[in-house]
Specification:
Elements (H helix, E strand, L loop, with lengths): L5 E4 L6 H11 L7 E4 L10 H13 L3 E4 L3 H8 L4 H9 L2 H7 L16 H8 L4 E4 L2 E4 L14 H6 L7 H4 L3 E4 L6 H9 L5 E3 L14 E6 L5 E5 L3
Parallel strand pairs: 1-2, 2-3, 5-6, 6-7
Antiparallel strand pairs: 1-8, 4-5, 8-9
Helix pairs in contact: 3-4, 3-6
């Protein structure tokens, strides 16, 4: 089998119709490609459960899909442990994901028992980072001072500083999401070959914001930038 493309898609946040359009119409994913997803599949948008179901269905149909953990996924799986974790998730629009599972009671972490354990197990198994030739992929960022920044999960999931760890990266480029960016800024980073950091969060779910509302993706080998306006 010939080597396929290495593709990446940024934050989806429950925007299932836009996600499907990106995969099937814009990228036209094939089974020889590898598709990396940068986390934040859930919360805020109209169908978080549908996004997870679609990712799983692609994998079951032998598409090479590599989903990474995002900060919203970590909130989802830790919300089962206490009201403190549950309340943090609710403050970050976790109620929309509960809704997609048919759960409208948001008073206690005990409602998490109504979510099928298969979903919690699947999300719990997501990787925090991935490496592919010339690139390091994470959800949010890298600890700029750590000898091994891949061990600092807080930075991997939550960082918004935009700092990079040049010593660790060497000649590789960091690809991440998490912080919504206007399409023009993403285009500039992609086309600046001296850039060591590319953010692919086009703020898809924020479709009422004049400079956001884009699901963005990238071909790592050709640097072709894909974008799809929110169609939810």
């Amino acid at each position: 089998m010939k080597r396929g493309r290495r593709l990446v898609i940024g934050d989806i946040h429950g925007c299932i119709r836009t996600f499907r359009k990106m995969v099937e119409e814009k990228m036209k994913l094939t089974r020889s490609d590898t598709l990396f997803l940068l986390g934040d599949y859930i919360d805020r948008g109209p169908d978080s459960k549908g996004v997870i179901d679609y990712i799983i269905s692609l994998q079951k149909r032998s598409y090479r899909v590599v989903p990474l953990m995002g900060n919203h996924e970590i909130m989802f799986i830790t919300a089962v442990h206490s009201n403190a974790f549950f309340d943090l998730w609710m403050l970050n629009n976790g109620n929309t994901t509960l809704r997609d599972f048919g759960i409208y009671d948001q008073t206690s972490f005990r409602v998490m028992k109504k979510i099928p354990v298969t979903y919690l197990d699947y999300v719990s198994g997501l990787r925090y980072w991935e490496e592919t030739h010339g690139f390091v992929l994470v959800h949010a960022g890298l600890d700029p001072y750590a000898e091994d920044p891949l061990r600092n999960s807080d930075f991997l999931l939550w960082d918004r500083t935009g700092s990079i760890n040049e010593r660790f990266l060497g000649d590789r480029t960091l690809i991440h999401g998490h912080t919504p960016r206007p399409l023009g800024e993403i285009w500039y980073e992609v086309n600046n070959h001296r850039s060591k950091c590319i953010c692919l969060d086009g703020g898809c779910v924020y479709n009422h914001h004049p400079s956001l509302g884009n699901l963005t993706g990238l071909d790592l080998d050709t640097r072709e930038l894909y974008h799809c306006k929110n169609v939810e």
